[in-house]
């Protein structure tokens, strides 16, 4: 897996991602503690609303930003967005009112909504070989897990000496460091799509998404993943500090165990994906999430919570890490930014539902009672994904073009023994998914 880091450009981008995510992990913990400090018994609801605002920013900004970003120099776009995120995070330690949290979170996450799809769409151009790209996805998952394991450990250490408000400064340092690594990387030039208007580019990603069976199934899996992760993010601080009467340090270790499970899963996934299909791996991971949510109702101790969070971390990574592979095989280079933006927006639309729902359920019915309805939602989503995603998910499909003349360039390019066959993707020539011939 680590051989992919021999690519200098990818190495710089990976380091940029790591340092930014460590900072983001600190802000997640600091925000949870800040919400608890300001709202006490209403902390879960406040945190749920704050995270819902984050999702609104992601859903509303990502598709629009991608339509502009794909026509601008990648490096300037990424560095500018890192600077905006750093300046916004710098304001968070001075928050004294809950509404101030909401405003700053919207600004911060709007910049992230523009940054992330642009960053993700660039990696397949840096690493065009599927095996290298799979390794990069696992490394990326490991980097995200630093948000859940290294950051809590670092936060626990820092909280011994400083107030939690100072954790926000770690986020500022992370974003500045990310910008410096992006500046040092030699980024590939993207193939710019023909410009047919911003609105059409925004629609392009959604069109590909909803006409590709594997991606429609992915949307259902996103809801199951969001159901489990929302329970972890929103309820950890309440379960640990209110239900089990433990300290801030115990909260950071709970987040850390979730990250550890996810990290270990991501580490072995490249070898697993060599032997099993994306569909089998992702459905298995989601099944683990469903079973974990149902068992959460019976957790009665902090130790039991740590074990459950570790298991949910394994399922989370297993179900989510191959997502980039699905996006890569579903769109050509010029359409990947819009498709990554669509996945970014649709996946976070699921969190927009689950974050406030978990907060509301926890506040009105209790934290343990929250597990069952979220498990039911995840079960329904998993069942839908299984029905939408055929086990015969073929990349190369034979198909016809009755609307094109026999001498059309597209037909002549992909003719094999009298059969028109090629890697099938939704685009201008293929507006709908081909039915089996």
Automatic annotation (TrEMBL):
InterPro entries: MFS (IPR011701), MFS_dom (IPR020846), MFS_trans_sf (IPR036259). The chain crosses the membrane at residues 12-36, 42-65, 168-187, 217-238, 250-269, 339-358, 370-390. GO terms for molecular function: transmembrane transporter activity. Keywords: Cell membrane, Membrane, Transmembrane, Transmembrane helix, Transport. It is found in: Cell membrane. One of its GO terms (cellular component) is plasma membrane. The keyword Transmembrane helix applies. It is a multi-pass membrane protein. The keyword Metal-binding does not apply. This is Major facilitator superfamily (MFS) profile domain-containing protein. It comes from Acinetobacter brisouii CIP 110357.
